[in-house]
Design goal:
Elements: H1 4-18, H2 26-36, E1 44-48, H3 54-63, E2 68-73, E3 85-89, H4 95-103, E4 109-114, H5 124-145, E5 146-157, H6 162-172, E6 173-179, E7 190-198
Parallel strand pairs: 1-2, 1-4, 2-3, 4-5
Antiparallel strand pairs: 5-7, 6-7
The structure holds S-adenosylmethionine.
Residues 22-23, 25-26, 49-55, 72-75, 91-93, 115-118, 134 line the site of S-adenosylmethionine (SAM).
C-alpha cells in the first residue's frame, strides 16, 4: 500500500508530465510564482542548477519573449525552443564559470533562482552541509549579479546551518519568507527562501 507521500509524489509527477514540464519540480516554482508574484514579463532570470529544465520552462512562460532566461547546470540541458533561453554546462563552484554565466546578460538580472542540490548520500547531516554550501554560492552571487530591489528563490535543506543561512539572507534582503510548496514531499527537509527587496 503506497503511503501519502508516494501518492502525492505520483500525483505531482503525473501532473507535471500532463502539463508538458520536464520535471516535477516545475510545479513547485509555479506555485511559488503564483503565490509571491515576483516574476514579470521582460525580466532577466538566472537559474542555478537548472537541469533538466522544468523551472526554465516556467520562467520562460512568465517573462515571455521580451525577457531573458539563463540556465546553468553540471549536466547537459536539452535546449528549449526559444532564443531567449540560454544555457551553460558548468559548475557553479567554479568562479570563472559563474562569471561567464552572468556575462550572458548585458545588465544585472531581476531574479536569481537556485534549485541546486548535490547527489544525495542519504546521510542527512552530510547532505545538508553539501546542499547549503551550494545555496550559499547562490546567495553570494547576489551582490555581483542581482539588481537592487531584485528577488531570489533559494532551495535550502533544513539542518544545523539553516539559522545562520537565514540570517545572512535577511541581511541582504528586505524581506525573506520560508515556503514549503505542496508539490514538495513532506518527508523532505527542503524549503524555499523567497527573498525580495535586495538591498544592493
Ligand atoms: C533538483 S535539480 C534541479 C531541477 C530543476 N530546477 C528543474 O526543474 O528541472 C538540482 C540540479 O543541481 C545541479 N547541480 C548540483 N551541483 C551543481 C554544481 N556544482 N554546479 C551546477 N549545477 C549543479 C544538479 O546537476 C541538478 O541538475
Amino acid at each position: 500500500m503506497p503511503n501519502k507521500n508516494q501518492v502525492l509524489g505520483d500525483y505531482y509527477y503525473r501532473e507535471a508530465k500532463r502539463e508538458g514540464y520536464r520535471s516535477r519540480s516545475a510545479l513547485k516554482l509555479k506555485e511559488i510564482a503564483d503565490k509571491y508574484r515576483i516574476f514579470k514579463r521582460g525580466y532577466a532570470v538566472a537559474d542555478l542548477g537548472a537541469a533538466p529544465g522544468g523551472w526554465l520552462q516556467i520562467e520562460r512562460e512568465l517573462v515571455g519573449e521580451e525577457g531573458t532566461v539563463i540556465g546553468i547546470d553540471l549536466s547537459f540541458i536539452k535546449p528549449l525552443p526559444y532564443e531567449n533561453v540560454k544555457l551553460i554546462k558548468g559548475d557553479v563552484t567554479d568562479p570563472e564559470v559563474l562569471d561567464n554565466f552572468f556575462k550572458l546578460t548585458e545588465r544585472k538580472v531581476d531574479i536569481i533562482v537556485s534549485d541546486l542540490a548535490p547527489k544525495f548520500s542519504g546521510v542527512h547531516d552530510l547532505d545538508h552541509a553539501r546542499q547549503i554550501g551550494l545555496a550559499r554560492i547562490a546567495l553570494d552571487s547576489a551582490p555581483k549579479m542581482l539588481r537592487a530591489g531584485g528577488s531570489m528563490v533559494i532551495k535550502v535543506l533544513q539542518g544545523s546551518e539553516f539559522k545562520l543561512f537565514l540570517s545572512d539572507a535577511n541581511r541582504l534582503f528586505g524581506n525573506v519568507k520560508i515556503y514549503k510548496p505542496s508539490a514538495s514531499r513532506d518527508s523532505s527537509s527542503e524549503v524555499y527562501l523567497i527573498c525580495t527587496g535586495f538591498r544592493g
